[in-house]
Amino acid sequence: MALESLWQTLEASSLATFLAESAWAFPTVESLHVLAIVTVVGSIAIMDLRLLGLASNGSAVSAVSDETLPYVWIAFMVAVATGSLLFVSRATAYAVNTYFIAKMVCLVLAGLNMLLFQSITWRGRDRWDRSATLPLAARMAGGISLLFWIMVVVCGRLIGFTLAAF
Amino acid sequence: MSTFGDLLYDLSQYLRTTPALDLADRIAATSLSRSISSNFWAVPALQVAHILAIAAAFGSVLMINMRILRISGVDRTMGDTVARFAPWIWWALLVLVISGLGMIIAEPTRELLNAAFWIKMVLVISMIGVTLAFQARTVRLNVKDWEATHARRTSVRLTSAAILLLWCAIIFAGRWIAYAPT
Fold this sequence. Notes:
The complex is a heterodimer of chains A (166) and B (182). By secondary structure, chain A is mostly helical. Chain A has helices spanning 2-12, 14-21, 25-51, 61-89, 91-95, 98-119, 136-163. Chain B contains nine helices and no strands. The interface between A and B is medium-sized, with 35 and 35 residues.
């Protein structure tokens, strides 16, 4: 398969060899990855809990969004960059790992959920921006987001138990 | 790496000469330790709980400290910010202590004889000490007139940045437990 040879090429690159052989590179990149992911999950959960009406109900939804989303996006970009490096170091093993694939599926679903929320539900926010109880579509977006991000953490940690003995 | 790695290795070797060795052996011999470590899902589940609690705590720490540094959340008063996020930090810390104890009981040798684990513990205690002192001296007493009393003080801003950096260092040390040469 074409993808398989791509993973092999990536894994044979000097960058991948360095990451795999250096004593400190992989743990350092992985630590940054964890820091980025807890920032994404911790910040987006604040928004999700507001959408669910469980916390920050005294603040407007748009204010909570403005406060949290910049951290979500910056940390997400760091997570993608560091995650790509981790992937490259053992591309052929990650590409076939069940939990890695499940993690990517959860990421895509979390992204689609956010896209739907931002492009459809968010347009009507003037009517409920300051309400504690939001329309069902907004509450569902918050619940689904929280669920998929928790699954990202679950799958991410399980990769470490199934890929190698770390 | 070699010098830093050597330092971690030497520290881990030193730990084997302390009561930590005997303690790790005694914990490993308990039936609780054996039942947790023999279950494939138990340690990952504890680690997931630990990471999610760190996310909750770090997200809250980030919001409070970015508000103090006036980088975000300035449309909310300092009092409202602390009321919203501080309880989440302490409840998350409780989950962190419980899940952390679970991981120590499951794998006492991996944790107690590991230099990165003890570096993390020193960082955690420092972070809690600095946070409590900071709360007592600033947030709790003068939160009502925060902007007039504390908002622009360099010491307040520096302490706030230090607390954020301590959390980052704790997260790093936590992940390094898996890699420190022992």
